[in-house]
Amino acid sequence: MNLTPASYAARYTAAPESQQVTDWGERIAWVIGLALFVALLYWLMREGWKWRAVLQSDLPELPQAPAEPGEPRLTMTGRYHGSTTAGQWLDRIVAHGLGARSRVELTLTERGVDVVRPGATDFFIPADRLRDARLDKGIAGKVLTEDGLLVITWEHGGKLLDSGFRSDRAAEHVAWRDALRAMSTGPSAGPAGSTEDPHGTTDAAATTHHEEGAR
Question: Rounded to 5 degrees, what are φ and ψ at 140?
């Protein structure tokens, strides 16, 4: 190959390209900073949970199933998604283990609802404390599909609570809602076939409900 004097000079006088050196110190600092930030968030969430439990310390111990609960009318297996103050889907109740999500086995008898939670605290909802039942889409910050949640409103310690359950077979929700409303001693949200929110949630609120709880 013939090289002109100019190209020959340019070839040997051009400065060699240097490889970019990785700044490991900066990367390590970023990783440590991120880890500390995540740890801080976890600590704040845990402290908030503990503080909420302190605020709810006046809530009595959860009722337990009677020795003879009666013949089962309905049974369900699924998940327990949490409890809140009735009508306030983000005001989670954490006292006495109610804040822990878990698997659940529900049994409805003439005496109430037996809530068995493997690995978590069991409780019983007496029939005379049932106030309402409805189908909803979210509770305690958890959003599911439309009518994907059975919410039982009941009274405990002079306070109305909403407890949310999702069956492994969603088609069971309607039968449970209707049976619970028939037993309820509180005002009904509407006809048995209605799924509207008895707490007056508007469409706009439902949209916010989705956006805030989606995760």
Answer: 55, 40
Q: Is 60 among the domain residues?
A: no
pLDDT, the chain, mean: 79
- Are 161 and 110 within one domain? yes
Who's near 58: CB < 8 A, 6+ residues apart? Answer: 157
Taking CA atoms, 132 is separated from 2, 29, 97, 123, 212, in Å, by 94, 54, 22, 18, 25
Segment 176-204, tens digit of pLDDT: 999 999 999 875 434 333 434 444 443 33
Assign residue 92 the CATH number of its domain.
2.30.29.30
Do both 33 and 78 map to the same domain? Answer: no
Residue in 81, 88, 65, 53 with CA at minimum distance from that of residue 161: 88
Instruction: Spell out the long-range contacts of 120-126 with Cβ–Cβ below 8 A and sequence spacing 24 or more.
Output: 120/80, 121/62, 121/96, 121/97, 122/64, 122/65, 123/62, 123/63, 123/64, 123/96, 123/98, 124/62, 124/63, 124/64, 124/65, 124/66, 124/69, 125/63, 125/152, 125/154, 125/163, 126/63
Q: How many CA atoms lie within 13 A of 214 on its CB side?
A: 7
Cβ(83)–Cβ(92) below 8 Å: yes
* Beta carbons of 129 and 155 less than 8 angstroms apart: yes
**Cα-based angle 169, 175, 178 (whole degrees, multiple of 5):** 145
Would you say the pTM of this structure is higher than 0.85? no
82 membership: H or E segment, kind and range: strand 74-85
Confidence at residue 210, expressed as pLDDT on a 0 to 100 scale: 41
Q: What are phi and psi of 130, to 5 degrees?
A: -70, 130
